[in-house]
Structures are given as structure tokens and as C-alpha cells.
Specification:
single chain; mainly beta; 2 domains; 3-stranded antiparallel β-sheet; 1 helix
């Protein structure tokens, strides 16, 4: 901070983003919340909103950790006598599976493990860049996870997202199976669907897969998604298994 005051006095230009709010979003499966840890370089007060409106000096001030338990858009800025920082924005979406306990029944690819299996239920949507840490990858085995909804719920859909970048050996899903259980031991299959092999002309980017089924009551969900295990002849990596990048499972 002493240096920045000196730079100001001398009229030097420097990157002002160092004064922005930093925000770290963590899944709290014990409380069922997204916990937001915020900070600034100089401990300036941080004002925030959760309804998507622009924060002002009249908005609440974060005090350590802010716990969010429902859908909304978090926006925050640091307030200083010299001026306000830029506004940081993050959309948080809750479904019945968000911030609930989740286990991986098959391994995550170590190269793209990032924050681990809770990435799939953290309420945060990944974008078209699979390297941001908002995605996790599977290769050579299925994505196979079990989610504990913590109580019996009526459910009729499961939605998840895939990131596709064919040039980097990242393909879309080939099949999806969904099973439900009330006791975590005896599971019943409620959905199975297959998807076509990707073609060279298929676009890269985000693919949204929403599986619907007749309403059923369950506490536990087992969701299995199979990757492309043998890439097609048109691809330079033909014959090798593709990556499957997945983010944000939403059960409703």
C-alpha cells in the first residue's frame, strides 16, 4: 500500500485490479451452503447484495464468511475514500442436490481434479474454458457419483453440463444412467439414455443434458455418465479414450 501511495504521488500508472474484491467459493455440505470468503489487499469494507442489484455504501457489509443457501447473484465491491472497486459478480444456483454430500464411485482424472467431486454440487456454473477449475474430468472410466439429498425428496429431473473441446480430446457424453434409493443400499433405475458419437462437424463448447423421468421419491441419487472410450477415425487421437468434462449436477 505504501508503494501505491508513492505511485499516485508520482503520477505513475499501475494495475488497479489489486484493489478489487477477492472471493473464494467453497461448498459446505454439512450446512448445505456455499460459503463465500472475501477479502481485499487493505481490508477495506466490502458491501454486497445477493439479488443481482448493484451494491452501494448502504448495502450490507460482509463479516468474514458469507453463507448462501438459496439461488441468487452475489455482487460485491470494496468501498474506500479514494473510490470504489470494480464489482465482482457470481451467479449461484441451488437445486435439491446443491451443497449436498457427494461421493465418487469411480476415480476423477488426476490431471483435472481441481477442487474434487464437490465441484459437481457447488452451485457454480463452468464456462467454455475447461481449465478454470469449475470442471472435473473423467477418462478411461465413467463418471459415477452418489448424492445424498439428506432427506426423501420428490424428484423428476437431473441436469448436468459437459464442456467439449474436440481438439484437446474432450468429447461429449455417450450414455447416462440414473438410479434412486431411499436407504442408500437398494437402487432402482429410473432413466437410461444414449447419445450419438460426435462428428467432426459438431461444435465445441457447452452441452446441457437434462434427463427427465416420472416423479419418484428418493433420498439417494446415483448418476452414471459414460465418456467416449474410443475416439473415431476422423480424430487425430483415434482409438484412444476421450476426456469427459462435467460440471454442476442439478437434481429437481
Amino acid at each position: 500500500m505504501r508503494l501505491t501511495r508513492l505511485y499516485d504521488a508520482l503520477g505513475y500508472n499501475y494495475a488497479k485490479h489489486i484493489f478489487d474484491v477477492t472471493a473464494d467459493y467453497r461448498v459446505n455440505t454439512e450446512n448445505g451452503t456455499v460459503d463465500i470468503f472475501t477479502g481485499t489487499i487493505d481490508d477495506a469494507p466490502i458491501h454486497y447484495t445477493l439479488d443481482g442489484t448493484e451494491p452501494t455504501v448502504q448495502s450490507p457489509v460482509t463479516a468474514g464468511v458469507l453463507s448462501v443457501s438459496q439461488s441468487g447473484t452475489f455482487r460485491a465491491m470494496a468501498v474506500r475514500p479514494s473510490g470504489n472497486s470494480r464489482v465482482v459478480t457470481e451467479k449461484i444456483t441451488f437445486g435439491k442436490s446443491t451443497c449436498k454430500p457427494i461421493v465418487a464411485n469411480q476415480p476423477i482424472n488426476e490431471q483435472y481434479k481441481f477442487n474434487g467431486i464437490t465441484t459437481l454440487v457447488d452451485g457454480l456454473q463452468g464456462n467454455g474454458n475447461y481449465k478454470t477449475g469449475r470442471w472435473i474430468a473423467f477418462r478411461g472410466n465413467d463418471m459415477d457419483v452418489t448424492i445424498d439429498l439428506c432427506r426423501v425428496e420428490e424428484i423428476s429431473s437431473v441436469t448436468f453440463h459437459n464442456c467439449v473441446e474436440k481438439g484437446d480430446w474432450i468429447f461429449d457424453v455417450r450414455s447416462v444412467a440414473i438410479e434412486v434409493s431411499e436407504d442408500g443400499e437398494n437402487f432402482e433405475r429410473v432413466f437410461f439414455g444414449e447419445y450419438p458419437e460426435m462428428q467432426e462437424s459438431d461444435r465445441n463448447g457447452l452441452y446441457v443434458h437434462k434427463q427427465t423421468f416420472a416423479p419418484v421419491k428418493a433420498r439417494y441419487m446415483r448418476i452414471m455418465a459414460s465418456p467416449e472410450n474410443v475416439m473415431p477415425d476422423w480424430h487425430p487421437g483415434k482409438g484412444y479414450p476421450a476426456f469427459l468434462f462435467v460440471d454442476e449436477i442439478v437434481v429437481n
